[in-house]
Design a protein that fits this description.
Elements lengths: L7 E8 L4 E8 L4 E5 L5 H10 L3 E6 L5 H4 L2 H8 L2 E3 L6 H5 L1 H7 L19 E4 L2 E7 L8 E5 L4 E5 L2 E2 L2 E2 L9 H12 L7 E4 L5 E2 H7 L5 H10 L7
Parallel strand pairs: 3-4, 4-5, 9-12
Antiparallel strand pairs: 1-2, 2-3, 6-7, 7-8, 8-9, 10-11, 12-13
Length: 233
Amino acid sequence: MTQSPSPIGVAVFPVTPLQQNCTLVWCRKTMKAALIDPGASVDALLAAVRKQGLTLDAIWVTHGHLDHCGGVADMQDKTGLHVIGPHPDDQFWIDDLAQHGLAYGVPEARPFTPTRWLSDGDTVTLGETTWEVYHCPGHTPGHVIFFNREARFAQVGDVLFAGSVGRTDFARSDPDALLQSIVTKLWPLGDDVQFVPGHGPASTFGAERRTNPFVSDAAMQRASIARPASGPS
């Protein structure tokens, strides 16, 4: 039985000194594309889109950290595109982009106003493809991820990495919420789902459930044993 070709294309371009995975996704039928998390290097990213023969349709943002959205305002100025995401709980991070940009070598970073904020259960369209949005707080309170069910593909920002999980030592981070986001929002999507994280190599949810020292099934079982349910005092 011949497997149907994927309805989407994916290319990854690390940007900023933190090597954040700006992800270009597109609908193969219409060649309409979105850039997920253009943290910097806007001119180079736009040139890469042109080289692929694509029409850039929107800017999608997973969360408000500098390395993920420091280039959004510049890209919006140069293209007039809509900015989709993140969840409004990350507004305070977006408000501080200029300050963080000076500190981390992205001087063009400045605040922006999303055309559309996202919430859990929303969908976004790209050409003839539909992407599901899941609100996954923990790393930041307003973090979202984008999932294409037909292609079995997700872009998860800094929620989950190959062999690790997102940091939770920032303002309004929540380690318990992060683990809950992974276990209750990502794992149910299926072990076969391939994902691009915000940094580092791609993986699958199944591989992380087997081997990730923070959120593997075995690690979560050990955590539940170590933290018994509270009872009457």
